[in-house]
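Sequence in, structure out. Go.
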Amino acid sequence: MQKDSTRLQIGILGCGPIAQAGHFDAVRKARNADLYAICDRADDLREAMQAVHQPRAAYADYDAMLADPKVEAVIVAVADQFHVPLALKALAAGKHVLVEKPLGVTIEECDSLGAQVEASGLVLQVGNNKRFDPGIAYARDFIQAEMGERMALKAWYCDSTYRYAMTDNVQPIMRTSAAALRPAGDPKADRRRYYPLTHGSHLVDMARYLMGEMVSVQARLVEKFGAYCWFTAVDFSDGSVGHLDLTVAVRGDWEEGFTVYGEHGSVKARVHNPWFHKTSEVECFSTKDGMYRRPLGEDAHTYKRQVEGFAEVILQGAAQRGATVGDGAAALRALVAISRSVETGERVRLADVTGGV
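Output:
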């Protein structure tokens, strides 16, 4: 593994499942970043991760890690309810931030964070890692450069009843701790809220990444045999339309993908479960030459690639390819609008919603 001579020194807040499955490995493998520090108040969990990943420093106290001048950036890898307050702390300490998705749990706190990011001049990137899937990135470039006017999008994210039987084989054995900090109550118990925030945040960000701003939605929710299915009709700002399918959990294999129809071509994509680090299978048809193009992405470790993109912005002044704080706020606004539409049965404008899912 070849490392760049100049590398971003990163501290990871939280030693829970998403850090264990994704962020520790991603930072250690990134060519332009180092895992300088980890932080978790649970001594047993922090010490176990310190032994495995060997950061240069380990902290039980977040303020102490933020006070370390060698920490240049922080990955916030904790429960959704803590994202915004802990990202704000990092910004106040002068640290750049990569925060897990969703950005927050209310529109107001996301907007407040956006104002602080702008005032600070620091970089904040939201962990929508699928923007760094080479196949998806190719599809977006094709849509913008060759498709002409966009007509329609169909996108789906269907978690599988058999997902963990597969992902448990490729992920590390998770370590837990009774001392870990958890939100009040049990947010995961409210499936109508938890599934959109956890899975729907990927789906709406993908729709925005490919098609631009969402103006309004009309959504339906069906609950049967312990499964949940949201069907959402979308109006985009350019006059194109969309259909989003969020289903948890399908009785079958993992299904994620999209199709886009446009003036001079079309795109079809099958997106693989991200833990397999396999680039999406994408076909782009162009009327310019009557040909299908199928790009091959040789590196699809999207968690690693998002860290590298984050570091490029900070170290080299590169354009931000990852989701910005504005993207994160807009994605949450879309999820809130979908929730309100399910409640009312009416079409809901994103500009009119407040609060949380």
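Check: The chain has a mean pLDDT of 97. The longest helix spans residues 191-211.
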